[in-house]
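User: My advisor, Dr. K., asked me to get a structural model of this assembly before our group meeting. I'm new to this, so sorry if the format is off. These are the inputs:
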Amino acid sequence: MDCLHGVWLIQKNETHFVSAFLSKEASSINCQVFTLPFGCYCHIGSNLFPVRESFHWSGYAETIVISNTQSKSIETIKDCNHYNCFDVYLCNPDDGILKAYLYPVKKYQDSEGVYISGNFTEEFYQLTEAVFDSPYFVNDPNLACIFIPTIDTLKQSNLRLDETSKVFASLSHWNGDGKNHLIFNFLPGSFPDYNRRLDVAIGRAMLTSGGFDSWSFRPQFDVSVPVFSPLSNQYIIRSKEDEDKLVVEQRHWLVMSPQNDLINPIAKKMFSQMDSDISDKVIVLESRCDSLVNFSTWRCNSQRNLKLHYPEVLTQSDFCLIMKTAFLGSPLLSDALMMGCIPVILMDNYVLPFQDKIDWRSISVQISENAMDRVIDILGNISINRILEMREQGLYIWRRYFSSIKSIVSSTLSVINERLFPQSVISRFEWNRPKIASHLKPLSLINPKLSSRPYQGFTAVILTYDRVESLFQVMHRVVQAQSCVKVLVIWNNQEKEPPQPSEWPKISVPLKIIKTKQNKLSNRFYPYKDIETEAILAIDDDIIMLTPDELEFGFQVWREFADRIVGFPSRVHRWNNFTKQYRYESEWTNDISMVLTGAAFYHKYYNYLYTFEMPKKIKEQVDNQMNCEDIAMNFLVSNVTGKAPIKVAPRKKFRCPECVNGGMLSKDVLHHLNARSKCINEFTAIYGAMPCETIEFRADPVLFKDNLPEKLKKFHHIGNL
Amino acid sequence: MAISRSSEKYALIKFTCALFLNVLTCFLFYWCLASRSVPDSPTPKGIKVKRILPSYLDDSEIWTKEATDPPMENKADDQNLMHKNAALKKTRKHEFLADCRMSNCFNFNRCKPGERLKIHIYPDSSKISSSSISSTYQKIIQIIESSIYYEPDESKACLFITRYDYLDRDPLSRDCQKNLPASLPLDYGKNHIVFNLYSGTWPDYRELDLYGFNLGYSILAKASFSYQNYRPGFDISIPLFSKNHSTRGKTLMEPEDGPEYQLVDDVVIETIDTTRLDSSDRKNLLVFKGKRYTHGIGSETRNTLHHLHNDRDILIYTTCKHGKKWKDLKDERCAKDNLEYEKFNYSILMANSTFCLVPRGRRLGSFRFLEALANGCIPVLLSNNWVKPFEDVIDWSEIVVEGDERSLLQLPEIIRSYEWKKIQQMAAKSLAVYETYFSSVERIVYTTIDILNERIQTHLSFTTFLWNLVNPSFTSFTGAIWYDAEYSFDLKDYPGYGKLSDSYSPSRSFPLSSSSVPSNSISLPRVQGPINGFTTVLYINKPIMPSTIHRLIKSLSKSQYLVKIIIIWALPGDPPSILMKNPFYDSFLVSVVIPESKSINAKLFPYKDINTYAVLSLQPDTTITVEELDFAYLVWLSFPHRIIGFTARDHYYDEDRYRWYYTSKWTNYYSIILLDAAFYHRYYNNLYTNYISNNKFFAQNFNNWDDELCLDLIFNFLISHLTREGPIKVTQRKRTSNSSSSLYNLNPLNSQECFTFLYNISFNYVPLIKSQMRFDPVLFKDPVSNFRKKYRKLEAVS
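Assistant: The format is fine. Below is the predicted structure of the whole assembly, which you can bring to the meeting.
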């Protein structure tokens, strides 16, 4: 194997380590590649850079000698938090995002010529690459908010502790205490103490590590991450079918202990006892199988004479026990999630990866060590449904946060980013995206219990074009309902000016006229700032028959069901099995699924939804056809809440008492019904399903039709039909 | 086969090495790849993993057997812990045990696994004068004492709480109790919870200064906790709440008046462009009204707030007035500030603002926090290092904006960048989370206990999703404190969550459900849970003719929704054999249960036989028709979290006698539905049994126990208390049996006594909610042909 000699054009957007060191201005750079005994390199300026495409990775451009007398960084400060050890002023609020600087790679030797910081491991290489590829990367240290040293500290036992600290101290922006530096580590601690934090003195630097306990972890400062498992590389590309199979396939054992070298002798004894007593449920995999077999790929159970391949063996058990070995964090957690073996965390005080973010309760079972003897009981009681849910969610979490170095790095940086830029906070819900049954989806934001402030009345919003006389009549009616606090008239006629202020009737509540710029039906649902109450009464300018009692009663009913449309004219949709279409029904039926906004109360929140969130297609259709705005509103509300509207009181005729069918000829009626049916079918197609629900009841006053003197009834002017 | 494949690989590598002529490197890589080439590698679909560098784990102790044996037993962690334990034991007085965790400072042996948490309260109330307990602490004690957690026997308790009131440890404050023990008498405070709202005092307000009180091993439930002192997984951060916080009812903090309207003579006519959007419908963007300190700790933050004020949509009003000596310390801005301050009512300010500033005061916590939440005003925190209340379980990232005191001036820009939708969601969540976990002292205490319970029985923890499912769209049952891990982890088993009707469910991809939810849905095999339809429960505690029951069964069996009838035989002796086996109906339909306890509680016991979500409680001599029941059942489907029934009762307040009264008169309102014929969700049987039947306080203090009407009242109180929603009356029918032969005890004196007990003693308030409407069939009493009507028989009933 040889290096590809010659001049390479390194593009800035290339996911190439070298390009990390391009200056801000240059979009590309020429790089002369040649072979050295330790690998392929290229020159950029006076620096030598290793080239990724080579077979080898070793050697660095520059070797720095750290002398014995050089000083270490100050000791790691235990009380550090975001507020006392992190300098926010280095982060520019105008950036709107964290800027992370990656130090150039250098090679460090002590004065004897022995390397302090050796070659990168694959994981650390990927890590630097991930930082570079991330949206946080910046290559000018003067613009940076955090600094990431390129010294491979992933595993403490590879490190010379004091010398590494000296290397840190020598970094250009370390300034003695490492403020705003971020150190990556997966496995802290080493023989014989196995401490739960990196034993390198890092002053005020933040630590990202995989084995914190609750004493060593500094909340709001350190980031607890998964211990990456290199086995993930083999499974990262896995088909959907394979993963589904992994979730649903039945498993052999209830619980498995796949770890060697447990440090708790009681646990060791207890589980090996279980292994022989209830061997159908429990299996303990030992460390010492065949001395020739590498532990990373095989597990054994000598009692049962089993030799099992790892990590496939994890697919054989519902639960995997995760206990303490010399290390607190181990790649097993990642492997277990990856193979759908639900982790049973039996480690008190272990700080789980991304503990504040990942909902560990939904993907693992946490049992305190003192309840160890009840493990089988506890796990045996978990329903199959819950097991399946946890397993499925666990796979999702594994893929999103465990499966690659890149995912770990970008999650870590996003955690730090959130501390600095509150507007970019990602909710725990978004972090976990729990799978939610359709009927559970967080749908509406209105809770009648919470949002209908009792003292508030309603605002009557009347859409009008030119029927001034009947409009005035409606206004007079509406203000007689005692909860009406304001009247808003939407003047939708651009051809004609509204009556002069003096010509409007004097009413007992404030009146405001709003002229619109276009004659659109949707104007009646615009969220006008003048609507200060939560309740809106939408009413047509020709609905003159509703009594004040009916209106007031309607409002009282709305207060109980503030997330629904509550009103008077009801309709229903019907499925025609023959035409395979919905039909709009305006007959007086036993059931209802819509309440028309010609006279209905609803929450003003729906005005926002209607105007700015509803599918554009529907709004356009309404405005073009000048029809069906009320059906659209019913679809909108029912789709958001999953609930039916409420029809109030018996009245079914609303316009002038003399005229039949509102003055329409029967041919017009048919035409009208057909147009409405068409709307229903079109809207249903846009939503993908029919959102409206059908119910068989209406709301009447408690004493309605009771044989009592009328004056005892609070609402007695409740009309018929 | 596997072996041969891997040896091919080895050969290839050897060849490569030869080319390289670099033995050392080659060896390294040879070794690395060799150790990694897995025979019969399971890599799916033959994808080759390109590895160039060694993995950080290649020579790790984690993989190689040759690794050093694990350090001496417990070396790593357990020794750590032992070391810490030793340190704890040596602790001197007043020293704060910063290393305390559940594993080293809590005695798990006191808590029986699988049992509900038991809390003992001491010393006995006779041994401590009530004047040395503040009203707030009295509320806390009273809530625990009357809860199901209360355990009178010290030796059976898992947790302890003392009557010593350590809530206020600021000696300058009136409520600070001065003559309390300096440490907890029992077991150095192990397994104790200590509640505290104020610690430290002027001038330095040290957080751990509890005025000489030594916590020992106790768990601290404290307001204004900072991360520096908070012991994760051990302590609990609680919100600062005021003396006016109500014991059990919802504490209202909203302004009492609605929007102010100015009646102008002239009609205003304005032209509006309906194509653009303002990001919020509230008048103000950001407000704050409160004290500021000109000097000392916490003064810096509040003193700089005025820089944000713009007199337009960001309104900051502060006053220098606090304590006696404020005038000595006032600065040049005080006079003007104090004047402005008086002009505005802060609850109105908050109710009309999108964001509310919650800056730290002397301590980290502030009353403004709960006030903002209660007003649906998004809290903007300026309190560095503050541990937000109950942050183990509540996801504050969906609710608050976390500012940084160091970069105060960036706040306006930050909050202006929030979009309309996000604002609406945060505001709605504020209201909901307030209601669910903070709206009463009871809810704060229960949440505290529940968090502790989850730490003790970790495996019974609810998911974060469930804890935060206070999404307002669910008008029914919110908040993990009311769920029961023993009952079910599956939300659809709780009232209000399951899709109960048979109609298919529409796609709800629009608009608020996140469309980015992964489409990883696969159809999993699910175990069948409870089913649709209803189970009728006939509770028989008075002699009754078997033929009456037969008639009822016969008529009930005509219902298309009936799944099962359960007869609870609460009379002495065995049920007549004719009930047990009757050729008339099959045994699948009817089963007879003889309850263990003959008390009235048996009526609301969660019997295993009830396998429908809907339960119909029915009086055996009812005259109700199946048509009415079917109608009521359909209504229940729409409101499964409420009691749906026929017999409505009301309550009212007598202003002359300053008392609440129960009434059976027909009025324009009702707030109670009796269980003579009523549908409710089966989960309420669990709740009732847990919260009422097994409640020692209830049993001790309640004489009129065996009274059916009283039971119905308790049930209504309980459901309204938990859901904050009332029952629903259906149809015109006023009573369901001929009163002369009714089995119901309708002694009005008893019922008033029961009602008084409930609101005075057990609930401390009237949770009942009034309604002015009932549900009738759509065409009820309409002047149309009866043939058109589905519920014809209902027309005749009155």
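One thing worth pointing out at the meeting: The CA atoms of residues 221 and 317 of chain A lie 36 Å apart.

User: Perfect, thanks a lot.
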